[in-house]
Write a structure and sequence with these properties.
Strand content of chain A: 25-35%
Distance between the termini of chain B: 34 Å
Number of helices of chain A: 6
Helix content of chain B: 25-40%
Shape of chain B: globular
Number of domains of chain A: 1
Keywords (chain A): Transferase
Helix content of chain A: 10-25%
Low-confidence stretches of chain A: none
InterPro entries (chain A): CoA_trans_fam_I, NagB/RpiA_transferase-like
Order of helices and strands of chain B: HEHEHEHEHEHEEEEHEEH
CATH class of the largest domain in chain B: Alpha Beta
Mean pLDDT of chain B: 97
GO molecular function (chain A): CoA-transferase activity
Low-confidence stretches of chain B: none
Protein name (chain A): Acyl CoA:acetate/3-ketoacid CoA transferase, beta subunit
Number of domains of chain B: 2
Number of strands of chain A: 14
Oligomer: heterodimer
CATH topology of the largest domain in chain B: Glutaconate Coenzyme A-transferase
Pfam family, one (chain A): CoA_trans
CATH architecture of the largest domain in chain B: 3-Layer(aba) Sandwich
Radius of gyration of chain B: 18 Å
Shape of chain A: globular
Number of helices of chain B: 8
Chain lengths: 240, 247
Amino acid sequence: MRVDYVVRAIAELLNDGELVYVGLNSGPAILGAFMARDLMKKDIDIVGVAEAFNPKSITLSPSTGDPFFLEGSPVMITVDSFDLAQKGELDVMFLGPAQIDEETNVNLTAIGDYERPKVKLPGGAATAYLMPLVKKMILWNLKHSKRSFVKRVDFVTGSARLSRNSVYVVSDMAVMRYDRSERRWKVIGLYPWSTLDEVKERTEFGVEEENPRVISITEEEKRFIEKLDPYELRSALELP
Amino acid sequence: MPLEEALTLVHDEDLITVSGISIHRNPMSFVKALPKSGVKNLSFIDREPGIALEYLLRENLVKSVRVAMATLEWFGMLPAFRSKVENGEVEFLEDVCGAFIAGIRAGAAGVPFMPVRGILGSDLVRLHERKGTWKIGRDPFSGEEILFVKAIVPDVAILHVNRADRYGNSEIVGPLYEDEFKGKAAKMVIVTTEEIVDPEYFFGRRPTLNAVYVDAVVSAPRGAEPTSMFPLYDADYEGILKLIGQG
């Protein structure tokens, strides 16, 4: 599954020593975080909306807030995790916005007008709060097109433009890093099925390459993801 | 207290909040009984609600909603929430998790507002400033620009818990979300509980919520269904699909 490569790309972005928060409706993020910790053996701590501190292991269920993750861990409430963010001690957050723009603004609120939206989205949750506060923001979007990677989002749910943190986006076409000094997105990863030209064609704002490498996945990594998601819930994230 | 009596504690136009998130520990037995009470024009406030909000919207009990996110995750958006917001049938104000937490903590502590970091730079700021729920201000000590969130004081909080004694001392096992603060902030607190325990259970032990905050205790075994109740039962996925009209 292509989404497995996305999981792998997310896992690669995590580093030793990081405290990582996983929110609601965050399948690729939770799989990526556990791959980083348990397969790549990165020394990270995983917390999240399920309020489990570093669960021993998980089985992906329809909710990434599944309280049964607590069967192998103590409780760490979101209020405490978010207080850590205000103290500058929460390292990584993941978000899956519908739109991302050239300035790191993201939209999870609505397509069209806020008052009478063409499409109402689920809402930003902690987006506005955490985007400027975490040290590393990892965005994902599995529908890389000019409708999702836009010059300017319809609504700024949240933004990292007033922060100095690192921002990445992992899509189904590329991995990109926001370069703050040049104020541009740089393509740092591609997939076996994607090219830089295709990424440019499908992005409304200008992007540049920065030695993009091809993201690969081993059989062992595939089996690891299958073990965490035996019901293949992640297949719902795949493009038709 | 019998459920019927507790239902009379919710009044027309009340601002209500409920326990849990998404498909977990929503006070469903109480929420499902609310339409019978005839109550209407409720306002609803929460961080990341799911099934309870969807049910109340379907039953047309709610006129305004203020939440940071409303999702059933793998099951998709809340269908009634989505259509009612898209058609302008409910008043909607999008909140932010960190701001909701600040506001409900201010309500719990009895202070008028709480500062919160982040959020500046979001288009949500001007919407909330217009509503009078947030204000950009300055840290009086450092002069730094920071957001103030007005205290959130719900009229009623309905909280489903694992154990409570007859006085209202309540214990939640597993994730708490902001339920402790909801119970401390709200003017009226209705606890529905899986189990009523003897008051001795809480001797020497801190309840998640002390009796002093609680106005009604209602026995409600399996009272979160079809949402999950840690560690007693998992979410009933078929029941959820049925409730959202996809079963």
